[in-house]
Specification:
This protein has no helices and 11 strands. By secondary structure, it is mainly beta.
Length: about 110
């Protein structure tokens, strides 16, 4: 339980939250999706010490900011970081602690 993958699929919901108990401590997740639009999803995660996460957010190729027009960028704690394409998802890895993530920094 050193690594977790968080890939919310809210469907028509506009928000969801929960806590998942692990042997390292609780993983807390809160997700909002304004107007039910997954491309506007915002994810808040609190991870216990010693745990890292891969975060996956829904992304249309034209919606995610890109570096050099290729690699997608994800806003993590107010700063754009390089992400990885996974079909209709974009991910960032090795995030730790308290994390806020979305496709665009606002």
């Amino acid at each position: 339980f050193r690594n977790v993958r968080i890939s919310p699929q809210l469907g028509n919901l506009t928000e969801a939250a929960g806590t998942i108990p692990t042997v390292r401590g609780p993983v807390k997740i809160a997700v909002t999706q304004p107007e039910g639009n997954p491309l506007r999803m915002k994810l808040q995660v609190v991870l216990p010490g010693g745990m890292a996460a891969e975060l996956r957010l829904p992304a249309a190729q034209s919606e995610a900011p890109a570096m050099d027009g290729r690699a997608p960028m994800v806003c993590v704690n107010g700063v754009y970081v390089l992400g990885t394409n996974h079909g209709h998802l974009v991910s960032v890895t090795a995030v730790q602690g308290t994390v806020s993530a979305s496709l665009k920094c606002e």
